[in-house]
Automatic annotation (TrEMBL):
Similarity-based family: Belongs to the ABC transporter superfamily.
Organism encoding this protein: Rhizobium favelukesii
Localization, UniProt: Cell membrane
Protein name as it appears in the record: Nitrate transport ATP-binding protein nrtC
Lineage, top ranks: Bacteria, Pseudomonadati, Pseudomonadota, Alphaproteobacteria, Hyphomicrobiales
One term under GO cellular component: plasma membrane
């Protein structure tokens, strides 16, 4: 499959008062250009966290988000997010 967006062994954890909360572990996904993918799961399973990582709005703890084989770790015009709640981005 021709990878447009690739999630490569992604981990994400948050620091909660000195305690590390593991939210995503070893997430792998390859999406082709034009492919339509839905991510489903119960509330709190990490869907929005994953979208924030793809959007470059939060850093991965491990692994990489690859867009056409280039690692992305900041927002860019080729990735857009519609937030669940009204949001203002810093800046
Ligand atoms: N900034 C943060 N700091 C600490 N914990 C966080 C943070 N953001 C998310 N979490 C935790 O990560 C987990 C996943 O949250 P997330 O919002 O990604 O879930 P979700 O799948 O989008 O849920 P929902 O279906 O309710 O939108 C939850 O336990 C949440 O409390
Ligand atoms: Mg969500």
């Amino acid at each position: 499959m021709n990878a447009y967006l690739k999630l490569d062994h992604i981990d994400k954890h948050f620091d909660r008062g000195g305690v590390s909360a593991e939210v995503l572990k070893d997430i792998n996904l390859t999406i082709s250009e034009g492919e339509f993918v839905s991510i489903i799961g119960h509330s709190g399973c990490g869907k929005s966290t994953l979208l924030n990582l793809i959007a470059g709005l939060a850093p991965v703890s491990a692994g990489a988000v690859l867009l056409e084989n280039r690692e992305v770790n900041e927002p860019g015009p080729e990735r857009a997010v519609v937030f669940q709640n009204h949001s203002l981005l810093p800046g």
